Amino acid sequence: VMSGTSLDGLDLCYTQFTGDVSTDVWSFRIEKAITIPYTDTWKGRLSGSVNLNGADLIQLHVEYGHFVGQTVRDFIKEGNLKPDFVASHGHTVFHQVDKGFTFQLGEGETTSIYLTCPFITNFRSKDLALGGQGAPLVPSGERFLFSQTDICLNLGGIANIGLKNGKGYDICPCNIVFNRLAGLHTAFMDYDEDGKLASRGKIKPDLLDQLNDLDYYKLKCPKSLGIEWISAKVFPLLDAKQYTYEDMMRTLAEHVAQKIAQACVDSKPSTKDDEVSVMITGGGAFNKFLIKILSEKLEEHKISIKETDEETINFKEALVFAFLGLRSLLGRENVCSDVTGSTTDTVSGSIH
């Protein structure tokens, strides 16, 4: 179960894993997957959660736990499914590594009352307690499930990268900013379909320079991004009095494509002379304009985009968190310190 910062909805992915615990070699097959779109009410509650007082935040934590439980219960019932367990990322409200905490909505004990199998959640907190970033966690699963792919990119609310050797980090803001600009351009527009608005705009060099010069890009790995940083550092640069929405979106697309392409080039194996493959998943994979300009930048460095089925594009994050939940139940490490920078690999996740 996955809910991302772009607020598209709740991703549910019923998956069969096949593997050998002794060799740690795994494969998967997605049996059934669906996205339950958030209502406008839930979008408003989730996007506004960062501003709640303590009591109201706890109440939302519990109510969202009920929502997740009821939604998963209905998915199981309607599909006549028989899950061995359910794992959920929760919905991130705070991710403040400098203060040593992260918080995802969805109270685990509350969700578990709707299930007849173990429920695993809260995958990030232990890593932060051990000095890690607590993010990104998807590369910790990609190393097992997509081991034949050189580079994995997930273009969600935040764009992140995962490498064949298991390392990874958050690259830059992505859909969370595109979607915000689309909604400001046209009321109730959830996203810029195919990047059409961006394609009509012009790059504004001064804005592009400001985006490219943000301090985050000077940090060394491990590193991760949260909505708080994006709200404080990126949103104020996007001034509708100074730029048109089309120009802001075109400039943002250039910025995102530049940062992702550079991350891929920096991560390209130095021993590999032939072409390197990149798998792109997440909602941004459907932004045709963004993918076009990204592809052009990657081709200059003999990096090609791997053809990927739509189900994997949409549900890879939910798939990976199911796998992290499996590893938690098996007592196997599921958060890797070479990604997050913590003092040790850990078996993370609270089991309910």
From TrEMBL:
Domain of life: Eukaryota
SUPFAM superfamilies per the UniProt record, alphabetical: Actin-like ATPase domain
A Pfam family matched in the record: AnmK
Transmembrane segments: none
GO terms of biological process kind: amino sugar metabolic process; peptidoglycan turnover
A GO molecular function held by the record: ATP binding
Name used for this protein in its record: Anhydro-N-acetylmuramic acid kinase
Lineage: Eukaryota, Metazoa, Spiralia, Lophotrochozoa, Mollusca
